[in-house]
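Weekly structure sync, notes
Attendees: PL, DS, HV (note-taker this week)

Item 1: Protease synthase and sporulation protein PAI 2
DS walked through the input record. Source organism listed as Trueperella bialowiezensis. Sequence as pasted into the shared doc:
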Amino acid sequence: MYVARQHAMGDDDALAVVEQAGAGQFITAGPNGLNATFVPFNVDRRGEQIFLQTHLTRVNPQWRDDADTLVVVQGPQARVSGMDLPPETPTQRLPNVPTWNYVTVHVRGEFTVHDDAEWKTAHLTKLVERFESEWRVGTHSSYELVNNALAAMVGVEIRVREIVGKAKLGQNMSPVEIAQTAEHMRNRDAAAGPVADLMEDIAIPWAQAREERVEGALSRRTNDSAAEPPRPVD
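Item 1 (cont.): predicted structure, written out as tokens:
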């Protein structure tokens, strides 16, 4: 995934998106090309190593694919209407056009298959406890039926090799323009609120730091020019 410098996320922030989402596209390559299945997962930390644990139905041939895998996790995302953007100015180099702001994380690694009942039971128990506040095996479903489900699935564990996060949130605009755009998005569509919040929390500080760097560079250049002695006239 291409990530411009202003859109790059730290590993900890990217992993937080993965943990909060709890699901993503599990992508592999098989004999007939690329395969993808949307799956829920647990994040398992063992020291410095991170694993994603999920499962597939046994009739899904993807678990027989090559071990190299990509998991795409989608964070908050929202359309930015052209009407949300500030008016164009005479000095800008690029037009203000409708776009899409989003947070996404790509996780690369290698997966192994677990087909023993103990691993699958532990995985499903942890998954249920992660997402369900009340439903429990034995209370709301019989152990016999759950055992039937275990036999019909295979466990998949991804050993994470790389996590790359991208937060495209309008960092190319000025802090004032970002704030105005975020407010317009929020007023137009309440569903855009989470992205508007991130624009204010992430994009505005980044744009402010960029302006400070530019101002500092211009100030140093001005001071250096003023300190230069006059050149002799031939």
